[in-house]
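The records we work with from here on pair a chain with its fold. Each token is a code from a learned vocabulary of local backbone shapes. A record is reproduced here so that you can trace the correspondence yourselves:

_____
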Amino acid sequence: MLIAKEARSPPQSPRCISIISVPSIVYETLSVDTKNLRFESRLEVPLSWEDPDLSWNTSVYHHDMVVLPVSKIWTPELHVTNGVQTTIKHSNKDLLVHSNGTIEHMVIMNTVVGCEVNLYNYPFASDFCAIALNVWAISGCGMFLDFGNVSTTSANRGDWLTEEVELNAKGGRDDRNYLWVLLKMRSENPFLSLVLPSILIILADVGSFALPLGESKRIPFKVKLVLSFIMFLNILKDLLPGGGQCSPIIRKHFCFCLVILVLSTLQSMVLTRLAKCGTLWPCSLSKSKDSLLKDTDNEEESKSDIKASEEEKNTALQKVVKFLNKMAAQDQKNAIHHRFANKVDLICFCIYLTVLIVYAVVILYFSFGSQCKINQLDFWS
């Protein structure tokens, strides 16, 4: 008899309003995509509503309840207002009908919601995301949801933790219901894979100032650090979160680290030049000992033609003395250049260390003491 009625349209009431009761919702976060700023969730939604057309007299039909196929009667169609992709399926092919026309059923929803998660403090991020769960209604006529409580299951999903889920209605309107989901990031993984390596590379660069300027060890070491950091960014670029209104501060952190590494390398190159030549302008390399000896020989060769043969021994001795004097003067000059370069290097190291300390204080303040606000309900604006 009930199947023959073909009740496949929503129940009508004099007030043009049908109340769909949702006694409880079981919520589960499936995944959070920080690259595309979306998150996927699963909801088990039990539904209960009244359809007078499906009631019967128990004195005629001696049954308090019967089971009917879902395909034979009308069921409410839930929709997610801010959903990018939503799949709804019946938990069972049958539903329960009571003699007073009350119908009980359950649907399972898998929905992907566009949520611009606030990643400003990444990897120490936390934010709310909304799932706008509603049914059809227009101009005060249609269906409205009457919610009960919400429970969660499997709160841990990857790097994200579902801390709280609560029901709200925007502006107190019955047609703008949403689940307010508090998501918090588990910072251990991103910190160990992204932040810690960059800190260690900067510390290695600070330690490279202990390498002497005169020897060709500091510059190759610093160049290796720069190349290692660039390779590190290329490998982990897919792990970095997306942008959005609140761009992650970790992107600025990586830019700062790369710039400071390059500047440190350039500084070592300039001071190595200064220690070698004593000037930053292009100049010929310092004369080697062989060139000095050759210059001495050329200088004395013109004089040897006019001197007597008996003075050759004195001339040779004078050559050696002049050569040693030039070598001593050159060594003294190089020592002065090297001492000056070392003093400049010490000053640069102090400035470098001061910049890093100030930067550490600033980045900690913006990571934990500064906030970026996002309106997660702007899809209703």
Observations:
- The chain is about 35% helix and 30% strand.
